[in-house]
Amino acid sequence: MSQTVELTKENFDQTVTDNDFVLIDFWAAWCGPCRQFAPVYEKAAEENPDLVFGKVDTEAQPELAAAFGIQSIPTLMIVRDRVAVFAQPGALPEAALADVIGQARKLDMDEVRKAVAEQQGQEGGGQ
What backbone torsions phi and psi does residue 20 show, to the nearest 5 degrees? Predict the structure, then answer.
């Protein structure tokens, strides 16, 4: 798969559940930096055909943007094994995007899940 997938509230959960590694670009047509980031994102999608690259149009999908607390666009999010491991607003240059993808590929998801469980335990247990 070398192109991006338009994510909507109808297909978002299924896409994230069915794929181990999903990059998500929250964007809008009126956003200049979003339009500048689009070709960088598309090129990364072509260079990483084993990953799923999704786009959420925040104008068309305000519920998704709200669910993830998106306050500025573009925002890039990476979800691995149904865990958001990266979220950052701003258009990344090509080299930075490649670096972020590389770092996300190297994550030990067992360690990430353990850290998330510990964090949730602390938040829930301290009340």
Answer: -75, -20
How many domains in the chain?
1
* Active-site hit among 7, 16, 24, 34: 34
Q: Can you give the pTM of this predicted structure?
A: 0.90
Q: What would the pLDDT profile of 80-127 be if each residue is shown by its tens digit?
A: 999 999 999 999 999 999 999 999 999 999 998 898 888 888 876 554
Q: Which domain holds residue 26?
A: 4-120
Structure tokens belonging to residue 28:
């809008």
Residue 113 annotated in active site? no
Q: Which of 30, 103, 41, 49 is nearest to 76 (CA)?
A: 41
Residue 94 lies in a domain: yes
**Residue 18 annotated as catalytic:** no
Answer yes or no: is 125 within a domain. Answer: no
From 16, 31, 73, 101, the catalytic residue: 31
